[in-house]
Amino acid sequence: MVTSFLLLAGLGVLVVATAGVSWFMLNAMAPDVLPAFSTFLAVAVGVVTVEVFLGTGLVTLGAFLYNLSAQYSGGVEIAVTEALTGPPPANARALLLMARARRRLRTHIAPGDPGAGDRSSGARPARAQRETE
């Protein structure tokens, strides 16, 4: 929400500045055709204010709905945090278990064994061949 608000507020400042510059350019080409500068600027500020608040609300709602659907469909969850900490304990344990399983797998597969890395070719590891012989 804060990120979208800041981005939309910055965009709003650019829109108001552009409206002011365009009023001066149009007034120089055709004087006394446009409304007063204060009226023109007030309308621009009003439109930008509505845009910033509605845009912030819509982006926040969209992020909430995306996170909700990602929770059930397995998508990527958007999370912006302020504190950079290590992985949660459950993730750290899972990483440790995966590292142990990888280490065990590497010790069971003999280095240089043809077909050890490619199970789709139908080749069996050396240990499995010895057991069947």
TrEMBL record:
According to the record, the residues making up region (Disordered) are 108-133
Locate the DUF3566 domain: which residues? 37-82
Q: Name one Pfam family in it.
A: DUF3566
The identity of this protein, by name, is DUF3566 domain-containing protein
Chain ranges passing through the membrane: 43-66
Domain of life, source organism? Bacteria
Species for this entry: Streptomyces nogalater
Q: Which UniProt keywords apply?
A: Membrane, Transmembrane, Transmembrane helix
Q: Which InterPro entries match?
A: DUF3566_TM
The answer on whether this UniProt entry bears the keyword Membrane reads yes
